[in-house]
Amino acid sequence: MKSKSDSLLISLYQKGDEEALSTLIHRHQRELFTFIFYKINDEDLANDVFQDTFMKIIIMLKEGRYNEEGKFILWAKRIAHNLIIDHFRLKSKNMKVSETTFETDEYSVFDLLREPSENIEDQLVTSQIQEDLLRMLQFLPENQQEVIKLRFFDGLSFKEIADHTDMSINTTLGRVRYALINLRKIMEENNIILTR
User: Fold this and answer.
1) Which of 59, 114, 120, 180 lies at 20 to 30 Å from 3 by C-alpha?
2) Which residues form the RNA polymerase sigma-70 region domain (predicted)?
């Protein structure tokens, strides 16, 4: 498996070979993490962006959205770079987030809970957002509720969630993804817009 090209590993993974993905991640994890770390210069945040990058890669590969022009690692770095930009953009003030944001950024709505509140009004609004999100979570299956709470309310990384729940990283990523898809549907059905 280790001698196979990136393109072949991707093709195998898209056909259901989970080991091919593990080989692909292991092959490029050091270079990709180093790339992220030098842009952020924060090891904890770099770890989270690294996990988010591979979550997005997994989603895009499963959806057949990998562009074979050029090398896999360059494609992966572009995804990481965009996530880094998104992270800093989402930390800016006066951010407005609606249900459509779920389509491009898997954690954006929940960043509202992480933003520092400047005054008592902001704190009250943040508290209301948290209550609304917790209410929506009740419509999800229990296993999806658990990973969402661990990821966005407790701030655990994907690796920590995997360790805590005794699941593989792939299962954890998949469960978070499906939970977010279901949350988006709930928000759309109820015309919910979360704003601060």
Assistant:
1) 59
2) 24-92
Q: In 63-101, which residue ranges form alpha helices assigned H by DSSP?
A: 72-90
CATH hierarchy code of domain 1-90:
1.10.1740.10
Measured N-to-C along each axis, helices 18-40 and 6-14 cross at an angle, to the nearest 10 degrees, of 120
* Separation of alpha carbons 38 and 158, rounded Å: 21
Angstrom CA distances, 97 to 17, 25, 44, 108, 125, stand at: 37, 32, 25, 7, 13
pTM of the predicted protein model:
0.48
Tens digit of pLDDT for each residue in 10-62? 888 888 888 888 898 889 989 999 988 888 878 888 888 888 888 888 888 88
- For the chain, the helix, strand and coil percentages under 3-state DSSP, each to the nearest 5: 70, 0, 30
